[in-house]
Amino acid sequence: MARFLVYTSPARGHLFPLVPTLLELHRRGHTVVVRTLAAELPRLHALGLQAQAMDPAIEAREIDDWKASSPPAAMLAACRTFLDRGQHEPGDLARAIAQEQPDALFVDVNSWGAAAAAEASGLPWAVFAPYLLPVRAPGAPPWGLGLAPARGAAGRLRDAVVWPMVDALYDRALPGLNRLRVAAGVQPFQHVTQFATHPPCLISYTAPPFEYARAWPANIHMVGPGIWEPPATPPDTASGDTRPLILVTCSTEYQNDGRIVAATLAALANEPVRVVATTASLDPAGFSAPGNAVVERFLPHGPLLAQAACVVCHGGMGITQKALAAGVPVCVVPFGRDQLEVARHVEVACAGTRLTPNRLSPERLRAAIGKAMKLTAGAQAVARGFQQAGGAPAAAAVLEQLCPGATAQVVPQQPRAPAA
Q1: Is 419 a domain residue?
Q2: Residues 263, 193 within the same domain
Q3: Residue 407 belongs to some domain of the structure
Q4: 312 in helix, strand or coil?
Q5: Residue range 52-70: mean pLDDT, rounded
Q6: How close are the terminal C-alpha atoms of the chain, in Å?
Q7: 204 and 288 co-located in one domain
Q8: Rounded mean pLDDT of 363-367?
Q9: What is the mean pLDDT of the chain?
Q10: What does the alpha-carbon distance between residue 309 and residue 291 come to, in Å, rounded to a whole number?
């Protein structure tokens, strides 16, 4: 049996998809220690996992890409966040290694400093990525702009011209990243996107047909999404009410996306549907709910998805893949980060619709939701692809290969008390 030290960035959208893999490792008899958000320690402890808080200075550097004026500016703002956090991560990871004496490390793809320190440690290490990766390959559209895959000579020309521009944009963060790497004692990168292709092993929490069919580097293992949410009392969703349920959500990381909820409430106020809105990082008191709607900051999505006809969201990978894994089509209004890519992938998979924020209005959104509700077959096809990818058992099997001398011993699952 092995001892795994897991290091996350300070984002619930990165921790929660990881939980099924951590529980699977634990079930197989391995020891799992997680270095993560301080507020999430009680939940992890309730699951039977060991957990410690990361350096508070890392949590204190909040991501502020929502202030950017364009997708390229937002990408650079996110990179600056990773660099700022990365200055504190090597020391934090070194302290955790000294304390825990792990056999292997499993590091967040956004923890650039921790990844460099993991490489320098001499321990077996792997990286996890809960979002679509900016890996260049023939037929893959340039990442980050929400472009559809292109075919033919014109498509190849577009990709040949635009991919170097995307690389050059990312590489504006290269000097800072290489300072982190050199300080940690490892070789500098030639391109920032090597954060995905350089690690000896990267577990990607997605799968075709949501991800485009293409050639991938041998280090990347796609296992499908990790679906987990904190235990909570299921919401009262008016059992017996046969009207279609529409779930609308905002990001757990603040990005000023409340327009999605406001537009959905207005668009569907007079429609024969039920609306449940979760505002997450936004105050629900800022929204006026019509008679067919409920607005709360947090509600467990699992029970709602079992009834939902459509999910309206910002295109975060967590809620998007959670909906698609349940066979529920989505209507995506992307506000930033990787959400332009997510929205386009949804559309290409025929699993939902996309509507850009600059075109967001109740009338257009109502039409986009209506179209998405007819695309259940595409969402179900994505759900089948996710199931075939193997999920947490596949991820755990890959991680066990890091420690070939450690024998797994599957232990019976025990009932767990609900998290506080």
Answers
A1: no
A2: no
A3: no
A4: strand
A5: 88
A6: 30
A7: no
A8: 97
A9: 91
A10: 19
33: its two tokens: 């220690």
252 plus 178 within the same structural domain: no
CA torsion, ordered 36, 40, 41, 43, to nearest 10 deg: -140
In which order are the strands placed within the sheet that holds 125-129?
A: 50-53, 31-36, 3-7, 104-108, 125-129, 202-204, 220-222
* β-bridge partners, 331: 312, 353
Q: Answer yes or no: are the C-beta atoms of 145 and 345 closer than 8 Å.
A: no
Q: Provide the whole-model pTM.
A: 0.90
- Read off the pLDDT band of 413 (50, 70, 90): very low
Distance, in Å, from the CA atom of 268 to the CA atom of 369, rounded to the nearest integer, reads 9
Pull the structure tokens for residue 176. Answer: 């800072």
Cα 401 from Cα 266, distance rounded (Å): 52
Q: Tell me: do 204 and 166 sit in the same domain.
A: yes
Nearest-angstrom CA–CA distance, 282 and 161 = 39
pLDDT at 85 over 90: yes
**235's tokens:** 């919401």
Per the document, the length of the chain is: 420
Residue 413 lies in a domain: no
The answer as to whether 106 is a domain residue is yes
- pLDDT-based confidence at residue 414 (cuts at 50, 70, 90): very low
Structural domains of the chain, count: 2
Distance CA(314)–CA(250), nearest Å, equals: 6
Residues 156 and 270 in one domain: no
CATH at 129: 3.40.50.2000
Segment 302-342, tens digit of pLDDT? 899 999 999 999 999 999 999 999 999 999 999 877 899 99
Q: Is the pLDDT of residue 257 over 90?
A: no
User: Helix 112-121 and helix 89-100: axis angle, to 10°?
Assistant: 40
300-304, 309-313, 346-350, 401-405: segment of lowest average pLDDT: 401-405
Q: Which domain holds residue 147?
A: 3-224+390-400
Residues 250 and 216 both lie in one domain = no
DSSP string covering 232-248: -PPP---TT--SPEEEE
> Structure tokens of 177?
């990243």
Same domain, 250 and 379: yes
Encoded tokens for 418: 């609900």
- On whether both 214 and 263 belong to a single domain, the answer is no
Q: Are strands 202-204 and 293-296 parallel, antiparallel or unpaired?
A: unpaired
